[in-house]
Amino acid sequence: MEIPLFYILALTAAASAIVVVTNRKPAYSVLALALMMVSLSGFFILLKAYFVAMIQILIYAGAILVLFLFVIMLLGIGSSDASGQRKVSVFIKMRRAVNIALLIAFASQLVLMISAAQHAFPQKNFSGTVETIGTALFNQYLLPFELVSGILLIGIFGVVNLTQRELSKKA
Predict the structure, then answer these.
(1) What is the pLDDT along the chain (171 residues), one digit of tens a residue?
(2) Exposed, middle or buried, 75 (CB in 10 Å: 0-12/13-18/19+)?
(3) Considering only the top CATH level, what class is 1-79?
(4) 167, 86 in Cβ contact below 8 A?
């Protein structure tokens, strides 16, 4: 039962991730991202990490995506005009080629880093319980935990800054 469920979750996550990137309407992209987050929490359930799965749904699919929708609606970001014909110039084609080359370079570097990290650091066996996650989070991974909270704080400052610019332009 686990293998078919894994493939269903993988197909759902991949398809919804593609919809996130390709959709022109930001609200639909956020909803597709929510579906992807729910399917990722299904992966955690398959790994018997129930606490991490619930945190995935509560924090990411709940709070963060609601914040994204709030920012989209606050800034009034609409969909681009799909009915108009877009002229694809040489510059746009070159930009796409450079983006593809950078994506390939990034993916190859990511594969190299992951393979090097697996050989350099032995993997520890963490189960998805609250005790093991709390112990690891506040002992081993305290600095990355604090850095992530700082990055989220910078994101909040950015949203406030964008909102203030929009309000000052309207006034």
Answers:
(1) 889 899 999 999 999 999 988 888 888 888 888 899 999 999 999 988 888 888 888 888 788 888 888 777 777 765 444 444 455 566 677 767 777 877 787 677 767 666 665 665 555 565 667 778 788 878 888 888 788 888 878 877 777 777 776 666 766
(2) middle
(3) mainly alpha
(4) no
DSSP string covering 9-51: HHHHHHHHHHHHHH-S-HHHHHHHHHHHHHHHHHHHHHTT-HH
Question: Tokens 């399917």 map to which residue?
Answer: 39
Helix spans in the chain (H): 2-22, 26-46, 50-55, 65-75, 90-120, 130-135, 142-170
Residue 49 near residue 132 (C-beta atoms within 8 A): no
Q: Is the dihedral of CA 94, 111, 39, 12 positive or negative?
A: positive
* Residue spans per domain, the chain: 1-79, 89-127, 141-171
In whole angstroms, what is the distance from residue 120 CA to residue 107 CA? 20
